[in-house]
Specification:
single chain, 212 residues, alpha/beta, Helicase, Ruva Protein, domain 3, Dna Topoisomerase Vi A Subunit, Chain: A, domain 2, five-stranded mixed beta sheet, 8 helices, 13% strand, elongated
């Protein structure tokens, strides 16, 4: 079916327009793609649509944050935090669960994570208290951590977050070896879009941060 998206959606029932509007709010989905998806759902079996709805409702109902690292989990602890084969003395700090996933795909890190859920950006109203930084410091106080890898993105926001974390370590008298991903990652880029070879090398060649 040829889609000419200059068309007025008012020619369709309200139910179709509402689905198109809601789908177009998804990341990477424009109105044209939302229109296609809506018609795909209309032409799909009721069994498939009900299964999709059930899985989305289950997602919202059962998935929550791991109480330890703030990864997504259906229990109090995520799969990584429960894994006794991981090195729990090494924590990798990331901005998002997507970054965690991409580092896992590189298959060179066997420690555990701490997800901040963002980066410091005052212009966007994101301050340290809006992130999981206090929880990170408390976690470092409770556990015998040998290395903290700061894997925030090499952007101005990510660098500001890394600097703030190192300052908090000093303020709380936490003498922990702190490293930053190697500079193989282009400045201004985001871990989510880095290829696995570059990311793997950045992890293996991470640099120690001086906390003078």
């Amino acid at each position: 079916m040829l889609l000419i998206f200059s068309m007025d959606l008012n020619v369709f029932p309200r139910e179709i327009r509402e689905v198109v509007e809601n789908l177009s709010k998804l990341p990477g989905i424009g109105k044209k793609s939302a229109f296609r998806l809506t018609f795909f759902l209309l032409n799909s079996s009721g069994t498939y649509v009900n299964s999709l709805l059930d899985s989305i409702l289950k997602l919202k109902r059962e998935v929550k944050f791991c109480k330890n690292c703030f990864n997504f989990s259906t229990g109090s602890l995520c799969e990584i935090c429960q894994n006794k084969k991981r090195d729990h003395s090494c924590i990798c700090v990331v901005e998002s669960v997507t970054d965690l996933y991409n580092i896992e795909k590189a298959a060179v890190f066997n420690g555990v994570y701490h997800v901040l859920h963002g980066a410091i950006s005052p212009i966007d109203g994101v301050l340290p208290d809006n992130l999981k930084i206090k929880e990170l410091i408390e976690r470092l106080k409770r556990n015998n951590i040998k290395e903290l890898i700061i894997a925030t993105n090499p952007t101005s926001e990510g660098n500001a977050t890394a600097l703030y974390i190192t300052q908090q370590l000093k303020y709380n008298n936490l003498s922990i070896t702190t490293t930053r991903l190697a500079s193989g990652i282009p400045v201004g880029s985001e871990i989510e879009y880095i290829d696995q070879i570059t990311l793997s090398e950045a992890i293996k060649n991470r640099k120690k941060i001086k906390n003078d």
